[in-house]
């Protein structure tokens, strides 16, 4: 039986504290190195399942940021969005959470640049 419940906007209750902005800034500094390691296997171990210390730190910061912001595993992280174009198909969890992640990323960037 269908319900008449409406989804809540999950961005409303999020608090962008100084700690969250610091985590975002640290992760953003390591993001380029992590992406390079993934695409060219530059990590010392040479495997995509093993990472260098910088890559492991990025993954740790990414998980911590998502946890602090209440982002679910199926939702897009603000660290994963760059522009308006969503690479996911319509109707997927990634496509639905892409605009929220982009908005959150812009807010985090503004706060990080203000410091």
Major β-sheet profile: none
Backbone structural class: mainly alpha
Low-pLDDT residue spans: none
Mean pLDDT: 80
Strand content range: under 5%
- The number of helical runs is 3
The whole-angstrom Rg is 16 Å
Q: What is the percent of helical residues?
A: 40-55%
Indicate the overall shape.
Answer: globular
State the distance separating the first and last CA atoms: 50 Å
**Topology, number of strands:** 0
Q: Give, in order, the helices and strands.
A: HHH
Salient structural properties:
115 residues, mainly alpha
What does this structure look like?
With 115 residues, this protein is mainly alpha-helical. 54% of the residues lie in helices and 0% in strands. It contains three helices and no strands. The chain has helices at residues 18-40, 53-69, 93-114. α1 (18-40) crosses α2 (53-69). The protein is globular.
Quick summary:
With 115 residues, this protein is an all-alpha fold.
